[in-house]
Specification:
The chain is of the alpha/beta class and 499 residues long. It folds into three domains: 3-198, Alpha-Beta Complex (Lambda Exonuclease, Chain A); 229-281; 290-498, Nucleotidyltransferase, domain 5, CATH 3.30.420. Helix content is 41%, strand content 16%. A hairpin with a 6-residue loop joins strand 12 and strand 13. The termini are far apart.
Amino acid sequence: MKLSKTNFLICLDCAKNAWLKIHRPEVYKQKALSSFEQNIIDTGNQIDELARGLFPGGVLVESRDDAEYTKKLMENRTPVIYQPVFATERYYAVADIFVFNPEKNVYDLYEVKSSTSTEENGGRKAEDYLIDMAFQKNVLNDLGVEVGTLNLIRLNKEYVRRGELDLKKLFLIENLTDKVNEKLEDVKNKMEGAYELLSNENEPKGHCDCILKGKNSHCTTSWYSNSDLPEYSVHEISRIGTSKKKLAELVDSGIFSIKDVPEDFKLSDNQRRQVDTAQSGKEYIDKKGIVEFLQNWKYPLSFLDYETYPSAVPRYDGYKPYQQITFQFSLHVIDSHESELEHFDFIYTGSGCPDEHFTKALEVHLPKKGSVVVWNQSFEKSRNEEIGQRLLEYHDFMQKVNDRIVDLMIPFYGKTTMYDHPAFKGSASIKYVLPALVPHLSYKNLYIQEGGTASDTWNRIVSGEYSEEDKNVKIQALKDYCHLDTLAMVEIWKVLKSV
């Protein structure tokens, strides 16, 4: 067995998960990648190929097993090599870009990542990649390959597209040589430990490392390694993953079901309410809070939801990396207490930028007054602000829309919680709230059941990946999904009113 960088990093996160990936691939692959996960992979490949434009004219090592070809290219001092392959008896690494430095007679290494260069809104610290790069450097050291600088290439979050892409502005390059070198010895020890563990033919016994992590951080094979966990485990307590001592104390005490958490176990107010609700099987309802929340709503009520796509590479003028492209809305309107529900929708699947088409349609269908009801207001408000900045003629309109927004998620979220239900499992997601409060409505019967799939489907439509017939089917599926989002809000509002 040769330990790859990918499997090494998986092992650091969850050792048993990495072992199963290597020795029991049928288990590892049993759960298919979600649209969100596949999009991450596709985006990484796209960014990797685009970054090669910073060093044009290179030679691509097409086979991931061709270390000999890489060696020949380096012996011939090929100026730029894409995807060079390096392998020792134990380890295996594929770098992104090697650039020959004639002054020092060595190659400089460039690692390409699809993240942004700021920590906000999905950005990551440069330090997050030091182990990744140290693995490669250790493999090169074992082979006696001298390397010059070790560099990280990432997207510049502040870059705004104007016309053709400017790769030198789109990407930022950071020299991390010194920081990586400081990590070499520690990473080398971890590599040796991982190799010994993963080369063992015997499956690691017991739970995987995720037994001490919150549910959202569980690995690909947690369902297999932790199959004895109850349906509603302590791992689903809100934010328990950030309270590692609390979770470890519960696990070490053999407490796995949320229903077995002791009354005197120290939890935050939100966590305690979730546990109490689960144990009692009864709803928590703050009627006074709900009355105060609803009393300021004004008719007509406009229940509004957007669908978006976060393109890593700015697709249109005025966009930054990963800035959401708002391509669709669904709108349910109730004019008065006695009136019937009306529905309007819009979706753009043309070849250009949706901004103006989207905003014009919203201006036509959205009532000029009354409350605009959304779920998680920061999302819709941010999209409105961004469109108003790109289309100055709609700036005032979008600002007025934002001034009227009320957030239906507030009664179900955090410190403002006014309504809790055992089936929410500590989540304020509409995907949990809806089936608990309005059982006759469900996303399970839809072709598209969550936002990641909706986003990916739109991208594939506008990229021309579907036949005309399939395209029309996908468009209708997007409409059905977004329609249910706003209808769900209407029905949840009715439940709050009835309370």
